[in-house]
């Protein structure tokens, strides 16, 4: 799933146009992304207890006929993707501590064709195939089929009864799941995100629809926290004891804030390129690869640095400062800053990718082996929620500013170029449709003036969006100060082994475990 994620996100807007329906692009992306790790965490703390069928993504999205089907299908896709995106948990249990960073980097590198070139591949499908955007999902079919074969023949974890000798049955475990916590968490997330996406766009911020949805969502999430801390008598969805580990909380924060930057750029970057710099489909695709390419480069560096360069805390602090230094200047974007924006985008995404791949292996190192699935699932759920909030927030800010800036810049430019005032309404309809031929009194000179004024309006709107990233970047920097150094955890201990694999001599394994316990106690 993750390998073709960027190509799918790139043409969501094109899907809507092809299906001849208007849609908030962020809602379709949220439908996929927000359930990924929430669903994975709900299955249980131990990753190997998930059924193999859980990993087979239902890529029937390519057959949808309308936007409602697209949103529903993306929800199903996100549920299946939760298992596939939990590869970090598998590697955290099967790979020696010392090599988890480089191995996770290797997995990220395997997604390079789609992670980097997904946008241009998607746009090539749109321009050159009969099925157009649907090919982005057909590729998902192919990759999921390959995944199914690989899991079936090569992934043989211990069976449930081997992990729970004289323990509870699977049905007993299922009945003891934290269903109340799952309901409160998912309901709170959905309500809060819907309210955030409605504000100022579908309904005014002060409307009953927006305020009630937001407040009920926040209240439900607060109830979830209280229930988990004081009333849950079963295994909590997010045990409070996890959050008493300061190092773990810091790792969760840097991962979450990193995702807030990454997912916002993934959604907004193609719009920046299209509205301010070029409308050429292939050029938009290539320049949208800035996000995936930069993040992948940072992920490769982060995993290697974690294992082979000391003082991870100071690495995170330095890179967090670089995030602020590279993200904030993008707020100066304009029609004449094309090269600068591309360069800053690559550098900022590289730093974000570095932080991301510090958090993936690090969360598996700061807990005992039996808690790896629990900790990773909790981090992933919070990270997914943070990314979804960022998408809603940034899209809402952009749409609100455009409502102010479009009339502010376009109307004077059009009338000064000679457009009659009576044609203003028709002009904005033409801008939405992308066809100026129906506007009374339109001339090539007016079209040129309007086109440039649109670039200014979008540039000014994007500035506010990037101003909104500054507080999150500051939170990232502060959180980095509490990330633990990893040298003490980088032993050769393997948390769990597949069936039939040779084991380390008992004395050496016991020595590794004892060393880890001593270091954690210290």
From TrEMBL:
Q: Supply one GO molecular-function term.
A: transmembrane transporter activity
Chief location bin: membrane
Q: Where in the cell is it found?
A: Membrane
Give any Gene Ontology cellular component. Answer: plasma membrane
Please report the record's description of how this protein sits within the membrane: Multi-pass membrane protein
Matching entries from CDD domains are given as: MFS_TRI12_like
Q: Which InterPro entries match?
A: MFS_Str1/Tri12-like, MFS_trans_sf, MFS_Tri12-like
Q: Which SUPFAM superfamilies match?
A: MFS general substrate transporter
Residues crossing the lipid bilayer are 103-122, 134-156, 177-199, 205-230, 242-265, 285-309, 316-334, 340-360, 372-397, 464-483
**Transmembrane keyword on record:** yes
UniProt keyword list = Membrane, Transmembrane, Transmembrane helix, Transport
- Is Transmembrane helix one of the keywords UniProt gives this record? yes
What's the protein here called? Putative trichothecene efflux pump protein
């Amino acid at each position: 799933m993750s390998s073709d994620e960027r190509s799918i996100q790139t043409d969501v807007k094109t899907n809507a146009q092809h299906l001849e329906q208007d849609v908030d692009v962020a809602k379709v992306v949220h439908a996929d992304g927000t359930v990924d790790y929430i669903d994975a965490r709900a299955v249980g703390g131990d990753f190997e207890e998930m059924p193999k069928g859980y990993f087979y993504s239902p890529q029937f999205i390519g057959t949808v006929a309308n936007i409602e089907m697209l949103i529903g299908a993306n929800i199903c896709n996100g549920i299946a993707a939760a298992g596939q995106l939990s590869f970090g948990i598998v590697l955290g249990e099967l790979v020696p501590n010392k090599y988890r960073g480089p191995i996770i980097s290797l997995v990220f590198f395997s997604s390079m064709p789609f992670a980097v070139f997904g946008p241009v591949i998607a746009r090539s499908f749109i321009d050159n195939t009969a099925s157009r955007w649907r090919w982005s999902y057909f590729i998902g079919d192919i990759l999921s089929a390959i995944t199914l074969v690989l899991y079936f023949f090569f992934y043989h974890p211990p069976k449930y009864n081997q992990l729970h000798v004289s323990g509870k049955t699977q049905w007993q475990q299922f009945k003891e799941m934290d269903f109340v916590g799952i309901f409160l968490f998912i309901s709170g997330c959905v309500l809060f995100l819907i309210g955030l996406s409605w504000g100022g766009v579908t309904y005014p911020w002060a409307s009953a629809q927006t305020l009630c949805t937001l407040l009920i969502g926040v209240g439900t999430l607060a109830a979830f926290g209280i229930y988990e801390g004081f009333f849950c008598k079963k295994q909590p969805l997010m045990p409070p004891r996890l959050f008493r580990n300061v190092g773990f909380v810091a790792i969760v924060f840097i991962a979450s804030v990193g995702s807030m930057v990454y997912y916002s750029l993934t959604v907004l970057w193609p719009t920046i390129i299209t509205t301010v710099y070029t409308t050429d489909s292939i050029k938009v695709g290539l320049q949208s690869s800035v996000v995936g390419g930069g993040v992948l480069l940072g992920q490769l560096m982060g995993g290697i640095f974690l294992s082979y360069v000391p003082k991870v805390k100071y690495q995170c602090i330095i890179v967090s400062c670089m995030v602020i230094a590279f993200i904030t200047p993008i707020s100066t974007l304009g029609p004449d800053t094309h090269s600068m924006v591309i360069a800053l985008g690559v550098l900022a995404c590289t730093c974000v990718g570095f932080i991301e791949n510090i958090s993936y292996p690090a969360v598996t190192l700061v807990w005992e082996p039996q808690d790896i699935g629990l900790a990773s699932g909790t981090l992933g759920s919070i990270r997914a929620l943070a990314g979804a909030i960022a998408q809603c927030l940034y899209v809402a800010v952009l749409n609100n500013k455009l409502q102010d800036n479009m009339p502010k810049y376009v109307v004077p430019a059009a009338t000064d170029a000679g457009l009659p005032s009576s044609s203003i309404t028709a002009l904005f309809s033409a801008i939405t449709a992308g066809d100026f031929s129906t506007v009374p009194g339109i001339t090539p000179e007016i079209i040129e003036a309007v086109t440039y004024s649109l670039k200014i309006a979008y540039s000014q709107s994007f500035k506010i969006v990037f101003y909104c990233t500054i507080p999150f970047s500051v939170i990232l920097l502060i959180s980095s100060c509490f990330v633990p150094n990893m040298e003490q955890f980088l032993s050769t201990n393997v948390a769990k082994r597949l069936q039939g694999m040779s084991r380390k001599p008992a004395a050496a394994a016991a020595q590794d475990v004892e060393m880890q316990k001593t270091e954690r106690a210290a």
